[in-house]
Amino acid sequence: MKKVTKKIMAIAALAVMSASLVGCTAEIKITPTEDWEKELIQGILNGDSNIKLPDSVTINPDIILDGVTTTPPSTEPPATTEPPATTEPPAPTTPPATQEPQTQSVKYLKCKADRLNVRSGAGTGYSVLGQIVEGEYLPYYGESGNWYETRYLGKKAYVSKDYLTPVSFDVEQNEEIDSVLAVGYSLLGTPYVYGATRVHDGGGNLLSGFTTKEFDCSSFTQYIFYKGAGKIIATTTRTQVLQGKPVKTSELKRGDLLFMTNDSRVNNTGIERIGHVAVYLGNNMILHTSSDYAKIVEMTQKKWEYTIEIRRFL
């Protein structure tokens, strides 16, 4: 067997690779000395893949030798480099449009007489249910000839147009507040009695002895919120003021409760200053009962100065 030299191994390696190197550029840095070597190299360079080696030559096709440099041309078309996928930015989210609160017009009747009879029917021949005085208001429910329809002492009532000034203004719609106030309107003229029996104990348990024939300020607010909206609130001004949501004067709305001090408590401290509560109606008007009977009046400067806390329950 012929000894395989480095030169022979290079030639043999090229021969074995010839089938796959056809068309390659091969630079061989070895000078052949034997005829078969020359024939082998020439065949490789000519692209002849059918070259046969002498039987006396054995090769190791895994040998890779220095001195042989091959640069195969690419037979595959150049890979197309796909540009990176463009990630579309998420479409800007449009916040839902803020819905403006719906409003409604409310109407009241302001008394301009020193005293005005409230009657059971639209005429002077009907019985007198009670009286209101100058500056007090009644809710408007309609008209009948020269008479306005209203509510008083739990009944449909009428007052003469000649002594009243209609006052209208817009308020935010709220059916629960409307219901609460409707109960309050029906109680206009109801006598004030300090310590009147509450409708419930502050936890919703009804109390015996309750009547709609008398109220003090906090039993009045407790009852109209319970009857009108099923809202359970406490029994006194100083416990009711601890409930609900605190409200700034600038954010005051119809149906909010105004907690005030009074002349007998103005010099007290803390919660002991609280001595009165009223329901705000809008347009500087309140519904409350104090010292005489349930009524609608305007807030005075003194009442604003006495107001300590505002709370929202609905």
Summarize the structure.
By secondary structure, this protein is an alpha+beta fold.
List keywords for this structure.
7 helices; 314 residues; six-stranded antiparallel sheet; 3 domains; endopeptidase fold (from Nostoc punctiforme); alpha+beta; SH3 type barrels; three-stranded antiparallel sheet; 19% helix; disordered N terminus; 27% strand
Describe the structure.
The chain is of the alpha+beta class and 314 residues long. It folds into three domains: 6-71, no CATH class; 103-171, Roll (SH3 type barrels), CATH 2.30.30.40; 175-312, endopeptidase fold (from Nostoc punctiforme) (Alpha-Beta Complex), CATH 3.90.1720.10. Helix content is 19%, strand content 27%. It has helices at residues 6-16, 18-21, 35-45, 175-186, 217-229, 237-240, 301-306, and strands at 25-28, 68-71, 103-111, 115-119, 128-133, 137-139, 142-144, 147-152, 155-160, 164-172, 245-246, 257-260, 276-282, 285-289, 294-298, 307-312. The strands form five sheets. A six-stranded antiparallel β-sheet has the order 11-16-12-13-14-15. It has a three-stranded antiparallel β-sheet with strand order 6-3-10, with no helix packed on it. Strands 7-8-9 form a three-stranded antiparallel β-sheet, with no helix packed on it. α1 (6-16) runs parallel beside α3 (35-45) and α4 crosses α5 (217-229). The longest helix has 13 residues, at 217-229. It is elongated and about 150 Å long. The relative contact order is 0.10.
